[in-house]
Amino acid sequence: MNESLGKPIDRVDGRAKVTGAATYAAEYQIKNLAYGAPVLSTITKGRVKFIDVDQAKKMPGVIGVMTSENCMMLHSPAGSDPGSGKFAEKDLLPLQNDRVLYGGQYIAVVVAETAEQAEQAAATMKVTYEEQKPMVGFETNFAAAYQPGSGLGGAKTQEKRGDADTAMKMAAVTIDETYKTPVYSHNAMEPHATIAEWNGDKLTVYDATQSVIGVQGLLSTILGVPKENTQVYALYIGGGFGSKGFTWANTLLAPMAAKQFNRPVKIELKRQQVFSAAGRRTQTQQKIGLGAGADGKLQSIKHDTITETSFVDEFVETAGVATSMIYSSPNIEVKHSLVRLNRGTPCPMRAPGEAVGMYALEVAMDELAYKLKMDPVKLRMANHSDMDEQKKKQFSSKYLKDCYQRGADAIGWANRSAEPGTTKQGNLLVGYGVATATYPANRSASSAKATLFADGHAEILCGTQDIGTGTYTVMTQVAADAFGLPVDKVKVKLGDSSYPKGAQSGGSQVSASVGPPIRAAALGVVSKVIKMAIADEGSPLHGKKEEDIIAGNGRIQLKNNPDKGESFADVLRRKGMDKVEAQAKTNVSTRQQQSAPAPDGSPEAKIEAESKTNAAVQADEKTDRKDYVFHSFGAQFAKVLVDPDLGTIRVEKIASVMDIGTVMNLKTATNQIMGGILFGMGMALMEETRYDPNNGRIVTRDLAQYLVPVHADIPEIDVQFIEKPDPYISPIGARGIGEIGVTGMAAAIANAIYNATGKRVRDLPITPDKLI
Length: 772
Ligand code: MOS
What we know:
Mean pLDDT: 96
Oligomer: single chain
Helix content: 25-40%
Structural class: alpha+beta
Number of strands: 30
Number of helices: 20
Distance between the termini: 61 Å
Shape: globular
Radius of gyration: 27 Å
Bound molecules: dioxothiomolybdenum(VI) ion
Strand content: 15-25%
Largest sheet: 7 strands, mixed
């Protein structure tokens, strides 16, 4: 059979994207569409006293102004689970009162006939406020820090084993340093956008979201519309990186305004508005303590993070989340505390926790290597954890040592001088750095529907979405292999809340979550067709055993005699059927969080019932996972060139070797890791969302001031994979790869800069001014 999984096939949606045929949330042509322009607060804390609605209404094209005085009342959402819909600001449903809790908060929406008219009226809107003194500084408010409960996905925020303090005192060599990371903003290419249209009491929403199912659930709860009357589409999404994982006010304000003014309404944020109104990564200060013997073996690890959240929700950046499992050490202490500030609420951003936490820990490991006079790769090898010592469970699979070895070869680690500042290329200082990468391998319950048509093509429906990562493509490969069809005979449809419930595109979980039910649904169809042939006297397979028959090349045929068989089309034609369908749900979670059974009579309950007779689902669900923890690992290396006079940094080469289980598509997988690497490069060298220290408002509100790596910055990047299937995560053996690529990058670059210059900069980003 001609398996397509693993092959570097082109994106199935590539042509639609480059020709403009792919429709993003803001691009739907809706009849009679009106345009909503947000009015955002210009103060950081206080109350709105007066909004001059009358004056705005006199402006050309203005249909009306929605404010807290005239908008509809909303219902508070109960849940805070991103999988089933998480509103980012649970204590600040938009426009429900006159309070202002951060700069750039929605206080009104102007609706007009054109976008320009709405923007003009919003820009000249007269607002008077009653100002109060905000909490604006991070370090200056540490006294108000408190200990939060759990983090995202139930992550523990306080962890301990052994006695870290005593072990630290007895250690031969110690490190005790503080690392700082700034606020980062996601800046997905596509700004947040929503179009909402009511048809009587039925609501249709086109949204830029990482979860159509989540938005459907939230809109239903918050607006009080039954789920079956709430339809959400996100067929194409221009990146999310976590910013579209939680739902923001624009997604509520569009249907609110559409109802109020009895017109379909579009709200499309400007880049400047995204910075305050659609999430960010929190600022952190992390104290790392490391204690090791003279042999380099860690005896104690301490990771104490102070981070910040808003007054409108609680989000914990669990920077220490990987610290208790990444290295072997008998003594560990991980702490997190939080300060509330008058800033827009933070949210997950590509590898929330690990991205900043591994930066601090991995720079500290580099500092320890220098103190020990030990090679940084050897130090990591010496402290390799063979199991998760905190949870006392085995890893489902782990080939991290191979990653270090292959990465070291790829970057030319042998050329690295242990002595900083001693290697030159022309007048530039050369440095090499390494860091470990890790991210959990998440999988959650998901469902899918498969249909085989009499003309020989097949279709998959799944209520997940492709946020730009390649989900359409890899799921086409998964389905094609299960059907035994070439990829061009399979159409995968996503991004529609009426499809069977698929995973949220967050936590790097989509491939591992929706791949198995898509595969199982397709195999379910094949099994039905095989059974039909066996029972059919007109079939060459009549009376054969099901286990002796396989699908391949659009046919079903005997395993050991492929000539004996017939096409799917022939089986269906004799039966007079135009299609065969199957649905499957795999209720599997790598976090031991199986979903509760669906309510009786619901579409989802039908899928669960059918899944009980699906052999692929049954085998998958029976796999014993409770004794394992699921993580991906990698080693990331950087080679940098630093100008000693100017402090300018050029990343010359990156080598990154990942152990992520099965590689489903080498091209999209490489692309995901490259994206993570560039994200990490931005973290390390350029990106920083700055606040005015006096009034707490964001001053870096566009891509001219918030710098991200551009083509000219991009080095040679060598991406490699171990390609060993994970035997426990799923029959496909693939773990997710959306986030791990960022997790070692900032540290690898920071460590390379130290190797080049002998200067240890412990606050990101490492800009030239900090080096000279
Ligand atoms: Mo991701 S930051 O979990 O969307």
